[in-house]
């Protein structure tokens, strides 16, 4: 037999999928509190269509006895695989039994231990996506070898075990131990198999409602929050079953809150895990936070159909499940919260993030070529989570709502409990709509990058004589995207005129517009149906900037603020003009989400795009405004938004005084009960700014909040200390997976790289880049992106920019890491250009 390959190459997966079928796993685990491993046994039944060399995947663990078809057999363990001896396999059914011991740790392993410092209890949970099931037990770890799993877990008797299927029985195994046996699952992929164990408490949502589980120490806090979660889940289940014309695909559905989970949520079939912090807010929540949590809940729920019932064949089609889950989450919530302007929120929460990546040299197509599953982690990011749903919204606009829905129904019906590829979905849409989507799919799915769409128009007297749209690739290639958009003509005293335009070539003369009354301004992506950079022409921009304050349509106002910000990032508009417009209009802005995004851009511009002198001149005005709005705004949500803005912007003694008064209780935001992380964020801000009373505030907070969370936040706050020894100590800990739980480190990366400490952290930039290969292999999916963003965004200078580009030019980094660096350095490149173009 040839040498076993590293990782799981696509060729190996294809060959196995042609050879192996009817897979069933019988799995037993024994969980021991405090142990650094779990022992287990797996019985794998499968059919072989032909005999020959066969690899199972298993890495990091230890293999004990192996039996193939009843006979003890030696196996070769190499490069994360077990080579099964071909002579002991036969055509038809085979049974392989393996005893194994797999590692458990608080970080760096797919079976993770959480130590609850609040009550000294312990929890163990799994997280296998994309290919880590094979770090927990021997298996065929590829999404298109779906299998039925029959699990039993032996654990302390006070523990509750939750898995994909309903519990079949629970019996005493030995003194103080209980064995929980689960029913066999329907066919699911290995990455969707999971269990969680520990002193969880079940929070009933009422008769017929799906249940949620939380760790015992947070039950009191969880109970009121979980009621809304369960309500949204129940409504979502009905909505999706109806929309997809497919009943809920699994026998039960539970939600398990996992503290410190590496993602917001993970859609294990029948048992979604949600990051506890995403549900039980650590800061005082606004209405937007609550709606975002609803979206998270619905996203994971939509996956039960899109991802779990029908699964991508390989992770190059990751976008299929993520794009749809995100798009469908908004679709569902819009149906039961029609007053919440969900499509405006869709724009706010996904489009700017997508455009920010998609206009960089590091961007990738939605479809990402993944020759080996060990590179699949890199496929996760804004392209998949933000561009893909944005492109699907555009597709629904192109096809029409009904045909879009019918295409989805057909696709889910044809591939239920099996696997499919994007081409299957395109075929389903083509078959219901009877139109060719070949070019559409080629450009939006296969090619990378995005269009910039420009408008040109002119009037004679009172009437429009000409309006045309033209597109070009934001990255400078000659690509042309097929698209449909809605252009709006705005008038002072008349209703706006909306025109639907199909733009399939480089330019399009909008004949329908000629003869209409001359508008005040034109915007070419009204209602955000299209995907791309839509800047305002010079005349429209001037008009929009002078009339933004009296623009009643909130969705349009949001899009125009977004478009102006794109102009700043494209260095067409002076960042000071944006900041000044914000200073003028923010006091009158009544929409919480829009105010929040404008304030975030203002903070970014002040900390990155303008000189220190300009910042020092402008910040006191914002501090005063924030303090006033935080106390006086009639809207609770706005008071919270302004309070957060003050934390982010305060730097003068007067501004920092306000934070100290809030911490000490001398001052309070009316009707807002600050939560633990609100307080720690203020402490972190004081530490980062080197406030003379920061150490006292830190110590007082640590004493007042001895909880497990408190220790995590204290760790993050201390990373902000502007001292060389602190930075050195932290950086060394970052490189060791055994130093702290992964979410502690992630929580601290941005305070380590505080915007005002770039001189102190500059020397770590190169080391942070050099650590990338290690981070890629040791850390969970989103860690690497956060790492790069934190270290690169901590810098604003051309020297730091040169450092990153020098690294790209000289170091040997794989293509995938190179793209990630190009993606992250784009913001620094823009910063340098903007600072150069708009000096004081
Ligand atoms: Zn997802």
Quick synopsis:
With 840 residues, the chain is of the alpha+beta class. The protein is built from 27 helices and 29 strands. It is globular and about 90 Å long.
Structure, described:
The strands form 7 sheets. The protein has an 8-stranded mixed sheet. Strands 16-17-18-20-19 form a 5-stranded mixed sheet. Helix 4 (287-303) packs across helix 5 and helix 23 (758-770) packs parallel to helix 26 (798-810). A hairpin with a 4-residue loop joins strand 19 and strand 20 (271-275). The chain starts with 9 loop residues before the first helix and ends with a helix. The radius of gyration is 28 Å and the shape is globular. It contains 27 helices and 29 strands. It is α+β, with helices and mostly antiparallel strands and 840 residues long. Zinc ion binds at residues 267, 299, 303, 322, 325. The site of zinc ion has 5 residues, from helix 4 and helix 5.
Key structural traits:
binds zinc ion; alpha+beta; 20% strand; 27 helices; single chain; 840 residues; 8-stranded mixed β-sheet
Radius of gyration: 28 Å
Percentage of helical residues? 40-55%
Structural class: alpha+beta
Principal-axis shape:
globular
Q: What's the arrangement of secondary structure elements?
A:
Elements: H1 10-19, E1 20-30, E2 37-48, E3 54-57, E4 62-68, E5 71-72, E6 76-78, E7 81-84, E8 92-103, E9 111-116, E10 121-126, E11 147-156, E12 160-163, E13 167-174, E14 177-182, E15 195-198, E16 200-203, E17 211-215, H2 219-244, E18 254-258, E19 265-266, E20 271-275, H3 276-279, H4 287-303, E21 310-312, H5 318-336, H6 342-358, H7 382-399, H8 401-414, E22 418-420, H9 422-433, H10 438-446, E23 451-460, E24 463-473, E25 483-490, E26 497-503, E27 507-509, E28 521-523, E29 533-534, H11 538-547, H12 554-569, H13 575-585, H14 592-609, H15 612-632, H16 636-649, H17 653-664, H18 676-688, H19 694-704, H20 708-719, H21 724-734, H22 742-752, H23 758-770, H24 772-778, H25 783-793, H26 798-810, H27 815-837
Parallel strand pairs: 1-11, 17-18, 18-20, 21-22, 23-29
Antiparallel strand pairs: 1-2, 2-8, 3-7, 4-5, 4-8, 6-7, 9-10, 10-15, 11-14, 12-15, 13-14, 16-17, 19-20, 23-24, 24-27, 25-26, 25-28
Bound molecules: zinc ion.
